[in-house]
Amino acid sequence: MSATSVRLRFTKHGKVRFTGHRDVARIWERAIRKAGVPIAYTQGFSPRPRMSFGLALPTGDESEGEYLDLLLDEPVEPGSLPERLSAALPEGFEVTGAIAIERSTPSLQESVTSCSWWFEVRELDEAGAAAFVDAVLGAEQIPHTRRRKGKEVDVDLRPAVASLAAVGASQRGQAFEAELAAKPFSVRPAELIAAIDSSLELGLARRTQQWIDGDGDRREPLPVAAPAAALAGART
Fold first, then answer.
1. Using one digit for the tens of pLDDT, what is the confidence trace for 114-155?
2. All residues at 6 or more sequence positions from 232 whose CB lies less than 8 Å from its CB, including other chains
3. Model confidence, pTM
4. What CA–CA distances, in Å, run from 6 to 29, 75, 80, 123?
5. What is the rounded CA–CA span in Å between residue 108 and residue 106?
6. 184 near 196, Cβ under 8 Å?
7. Count of C-beta atoms within a 10 Å radius of residue 99
8. How many contiguous H segments (helices) and E segments (strands) does the chain have?
């Protein structure tokens, strides 16, 4: 029987936000087995489940919009997967959507171009929030040094900031909403804050959505209101 593909959307809240990407992958492997989802496996000496995540979420951050593609051995009704998988996942994870996709669909890593964020800056007042926005949006360049493979690399974060706005007081300080690029490299709120003022401290950060832009078309990897299509129609 031909393999089929499905894309899931899930949230990550609470204490599980401190779970790193590799551990999240292992949690999903266990949940898939527990829920009896007929996942396909790689060939070879050490078979692995055929699943592919979207952009890695920084450890400590929450998310409303994480995505995972699964390759299945047999057709499954996507509408059944959110409840089955949510019940098998630890508290803090919830599957909020599932649709069938063509096997030729570009990977999430390849196709996501930007992310929307909500984040806090600790112990900042309203005037400080306005100054932070002005400093970011008014800058011609925002130099920042990253460490990659043991080497320091200088980058400019300013082109990666598509939008930034202060949205009022939060529990820990002031809150902001931003859209930050994922290409040619992914930018995190913590990096942006540190690049503007190293004395500022990030509070809670939450990724609210990932976006795909192409040929004038802007869309979510899995629309929130998308109906669950039968996987049988996605077989190749």
1. 999 999 999 999 999 999 999 999 999 999 998 877 788 899
2. 4, 75
3. 0.88
4. 15, 10, 12, 43
5. 7
6. no
7. 21
8. 5, 11
